[in-house]
Design brief:
The structure holds 2 protein chains of 2 kinds. By secondary structure, chain A is of the alpha/beta class. Chain A contains 9 helices and 10 strands. Chain B is mainly α. Helix content of chain B is 82%, strand content 0%. In chain B, helix 1 packs antiparallel against helix 8, helix 3 crosses helix 4 and helix 4 packs antiparallel against helix 7. The chains are: A alpha/beta, B mainly alpha. Chains A and B meet through helix 2, strand 6, helix 3 and helix 5 of A and helix 5 and helix 6 of B.
Chain lengths: 260, 217
């Protein structure tokens, strides 16, 4: 079963529809970048995938688990109980735009907290694993630092290590470089690129067209709560078929970076 | 002015015994009030209607009734219902339940002040609400509200003076006893005031120390 399956997903905030029938799948090891103007619903889509945002209609199956609504049986559907959602989230890693590191814990504490408290790993084992993960994101020298003493880029790399510590089946990235100073974006993208090369299944909501072009297997362009166009990056970013895609890319890409 | 050193000095042992009772009442009630306040605060933010309404009713009631009235009510009202409690027990209940109402609101404010992203991040790692609250949100919230909670503790310590009306031999009661026997007001009450002040100092120091220790965050 594919790690991410979304069928006919609908969601609105009050009377404002945000997602209007989204269908998509992500295959194991695939890296999918979701692009689109702000308000297009791409971040909301990600929040729905791990059940942080409820939605009204549709089927979402992530890491083999139904999220939000259970499978339809005889025309009836039931909400997935909170306890099952909590279990499902263990297999779904997410990294947020605002890092959301735990400020009262060191980098290592942030990374080991869930393995120890949720997975009941021995502290020594969790710390060994945590050090390894922090080394993997280039922060071996910062294990004992508190978030307040780290740069934005370093914090976001700790956040990636924290999500990886749960050994998730799929990683969701929610505009993870948008809150960073420009000179810190590269170090975070480099970590993500390596993760993609290692075969992680990734769904990346991003404004970084360069990253999408180089690292994505597939690019999805969303607008107005629906998927407008998708395909290999060289097609969607280089030869978009849809007018809406063309006009969006025309706005975000500086002329010199548009590929022929 | 009728201050006399001999009376002041002679009163000190009796005042010290009263102070010990006051300290005991205050320490137990502060701790109980803290426990009540943490659970009350959690009930307020739990998202469970029954708990929330119960907590609102509790804080409204206890913040709306003077502590002195609560004390007298429990002391003289409960026996008429057939419930006989020791005066000290009554005092501890009244003090901690009143204090707990204020601490409930402080803890609630503290929890609400923690960024929503903290709860989201904790939940996204597979933590249940209770675990996320206990490990992630509450530690940050309590750090932030340490100063107002310290204030409440000091207020409670001084409010223990009210228990002398239900015949508990606390510090104030020891002072009034000396006043009666010696027919001297100023000397014993100078000692009483001094001892209350001396008891608040360690509390202030404790709060300052905890604040410094939990600076990170």
């Amino acid at each position: 079963m594919k790690p991410v399956i979304v069928r006919n997903l609908h969601k609105s905030y009050g009377s404002t529809p945000v997602l209007r029938g989204v269908d998509m799948e992500v295959a194991r090891g695939e890296v999918v970048c979701v692009i689109g103007p702000s308000g297009s619903g791409k971040s909301t889509l990600l929040q729905c995938l791990n059940g942080l945002e409820p939605f009204e209609h549709g089927e979402v199956i992530v890491a083999g688990q139904h999220v939000g609504w259970g499978p339809e049986r005889g025309g009836a559907r039931r909400r997935v109980p909170e306890r099952e959602m909590t279990l499902a989230r263990r297999r779904i890693g997410i990294v947020f735009q605002q890092f959301n590191l735990f400020p009262h814990m060191t980098a290592l504490g942030n990374v080991t907290e869930a393995p120890v408290q949720v997975l009941r790993q021995q502290r020594e084992a969790a710390e060994a694993g945590g050090r390894e993960l922090l080394a993997r994101v280039g922060l071996a020298h910062k294990v004992d630092a508190y978030p307040a003493d780290l740069s934005g880029g370093q914090q976001q790399r700790v956040a990636i290590a924290r999500a990886l510590a749960m050994n998730p089946e799929v990683m969701l990235f929610d505009e993870v470089t948008s809150a960073l100073d420009p000179e810190l974006v590269g170090e975070v993208l480099a970590v993500m690129r390596r993760l993609a090369e290692d075969g992680m299944t990734m769904l990346v909501v991003t404004h970084e067209m360069g990253f999408a072009r180089e690292a994505a297997d597939r690019v999805i362009f969303m607008d107005g709560g629906v998927i407008v166009e998708q395909g290999p990056p060289e097609e969607v970013l280089g030869r978009p078929r849809e007018e809406r895609t063309r006009s969006f890319l025309g706005r975000v890409l500086r002329p010199e970076t548009v590929t022929a | 002015m009728d201050f006399e050193w001999p009376i002041f000095v002679a009163a000190l042992p009796a005042l010290a015994r009263g102070a010990a009772t006051t300290a005991e009442l205050a320490a137990v009630s502060i701790l109980l009030g803290l426990v009540i306040g943490v659970f009350g605060g959690l009930a307020r933010v739990s998202g469970m209607r029954v708990l929330n309404v119960a907590a609102i009713a509790y804080t409204t009631l206890m913040r709306g009734i003077p502590l002195l009235v609560t004390l007298l009510f429990l002391c003289y009202g409960l026996p008429s219902l057939g419930l006989l409690l020791e005066a000290k027990t009554v005092a501890i209940i009244a003090l901690s339940v009143t204090n707990g109402a204020y601490v409930t609101e402080i803890v609630r404010a503290g929890i609400l002040s923690v960024d929503r992203g903290q709860m989201r991040a904790a939940r996204s790692l597979g933590m249940g609400w209770a675990l996320a609250m206990r490990r992630i949100v509450l530690p940050q919230a309590l750090r932030r509200v340490l100063p107002p909670i310290g204030n409440e503790a000091i207020t409670l310590l001084k409010n223990t003076a009210l228990v002398s009306v239900i015949a508990i031999p606390d510090l104030l009661r020891a002072g009034t006893d000396v006043m009666t026997w010696q027919a001297n007001t100023f000397s014993p009450f100078a000692g009483v005031a001094l001892m209350y002040l001396m008891m608040t100092l360690p509390l202030v120091a404790l709060v300052a120390r905890l604040e410094a220790k939990w600076r990170v965050a």
